[in-house]
Specification:
17 strands
Length: 382
């Protein structure tokens, strides 16, 4: 035991917890995990609402989905699952609630049609979409897929609220991940594995971090002066903050949450998006999510996007713009990170990229395996 090296992991979310567990299980390292928050599980953290008694996700809905059996099997070591097929609707002016992503029923309701086959839906979209061979921004991409009206109804105002930018200013990559659905299937995801942890995400993390070689300390800010105490540091803090913003701040969007106890929720899906120009982007009824809800009365959560500086520096979503400026700033920080021999940046803020849960688990396993193989790990991402 005395020969084991000490490693520091900054951040007790998915990226930090996976790396900590892999290093501890190797038997080669003692791992200290710190987090400035007073809880583990990062943005997947769930808790009991003080008034309603309902279990909810503090930082917004997290639905696990993946086509990667290896990732599903890996997390299954730390939790049992409840099968769950997620569905979302969007409220559209003059139309009402319709499925999102756009599908055959959405098209029929918006245009007053009675299309009943995927071929008919494709033909209709072909008749309204714009012929743009190489879209230069998110608006051109959506126009090339859905045409102008559907783009305006479902994406333009929502994007302005969500990102604080017009579609013309947004990278194609932001919207290219939205599935095009030409059938009546109203599921939000089509992945093979879709489920929720039986006892919640926090319990999953408790199991993952529950190892004799892992020590967790919460409510602890990272201090550079402690780096010398460890053979390596895996750091999920914002990379621009670590380097004292020497190349400028990386932009992020954040979310403020408004919880309403006992509110009537007249929908048959758990999450409803708002496509209007108001401040809210979506609302969620936690009674619909397996492993959540269950309070004495309903709990409905509304989301208000904002700049991270307007929300106690809570960084949720890295920003991608048409000019690529945020990513260029990140690349400057990455060049500094590449010079570090005992420091690896991890996670959404350390690598300045949006990850779904299965993606961050896969990425963190890769980093941990590289480190265990040769004692080094990628400084960030290209």
């Amino acid at each position: 035991m005395a020969s084991k090296k000490k490693v520091l992991v900054v951040g007790a979310g998915f990226s930090g917890a996976v790396i900590a567990r892999e290093l501890a299980e190797s038997g080669k390292y003692f791992v200290d995990v710190i987090d400035k928050r007073n809880h583990i599980a990062g943005n997947a953290y769930d808790q009991i609402h003080a008034v309603s008694g309902a279990r909810y996700h503090k930082y917004g809905p997290h639905i696990f989905h993946t086509n990667d059996r290896k990732i599903f099997d890996y997390l299954s070591k730390y939790t049992e699952w409840i099968p769950y097929q997620h569905a979302v609707q969007v409220l559209v002016d003059g139309v009402g609630a319709v499925p999102m992503p756009i599908n055959l029923d959405t098209i029929n309701k918006v245009y007053g049609l009675e299309l009943n086959t995927e071929a008919a839906a494709k033909d209709f979209l072909d008749s309204i979409r714009l012929d743009i061979e190489r879209p230069a921004n998110a608006q051109e991409y959506l126009h090339s897929v859905y045409g102008e009206r559907l783009t305006e109804l479902f994406f333009s105002r929502y994007t302005k609220k969500m990102w604080g930018l017009e579609l013309l200013q947004m990278s194609v990559a932001v919207v290219a991940r939205i599935p095009v659905n030409l059938c009546k299937d109203s599921r939000y995801f089509k992945d093979e594995f879709q489920c929720m942890p039986l006892k919640g995400y926090t319990a999953l993390f408790e199991n993952m971090l529950g190892h004799e070689y892992i020590k967790v300390n919460l409510g602890v800010e990272f201090n550079k002066n402690t780096e010398g105490e460890y053979s390596h540091v895996f750091n999920a803090m914002p990379i621009d903050s670590y380097y004292d913003y020497c190349f400028g701040e990386l932009p992020y969007r954040s979310i403020k949450f408004e919880h309403r106890v006992g509110e009537v929720f007249d929908h048959d899906v758990p999450t409803v998006n708002f496509s209007d120009s108001g401040v809210y982007t979506r609302k969620t009824n936690w009674d619909f999510y397996p492993g959540c809800g269950g309070g004495s009365t309903s709990l409905v959560t509304y989301e208000i996007p904002c700049d991270y500086r307007d929300n106690d520096m809570e960084r949720y979503y890295p920003v991608k713009t048409t000019d690529g400026r945020p990513q260029e700033i990140y690349r400057q920080y990455l060049e500094l990170a590449k010079q570090e021999r005992s420091l690896t940046f991890i996670g959404r803020c350390g690598q300045y990229i949006y990850y779904d849960m299965h993606q961050v688990v896969a990425n963190s396993l890769k980093i941990a395996n590289e480190f265990l193989h040769d004692g080094t790990a990628s400084a960030g991402r290209e």
